[in-house]
Specification:
The chain is mainly α. It has one domain. Helices cover 82% and strands 0% of the residues. The chain is elongated and about 35 Å long. It comes from Sphingomonas cremea.
Amino acid sequence: MRALNILTQVLLIVGGLNWGLVGLANFDLVATLFGDMSPLSRIVYGLVGLSAVYQIIPLVSGKQA
C-alpha cells in the first residue's frame, strides 16, 4: 500500500504542477509531451484523477492510507 500511496502522491504533484503551468503560462506540459488529447495523455489525466480519488478516501473516512 505504501508504494501505491507514493505513486498517487507523485501523480498528484505532476497534475498540480501541470495545472499551475496551464493557469500561469497557458502551457499544458502533458499535452506537449504526449500530444493534445492523445490516448497516452488521456491515460495520464485519468491516472491523476484516480489518484485524487484514492487520496480523498482516507480524508473523508478519517482513516490514514
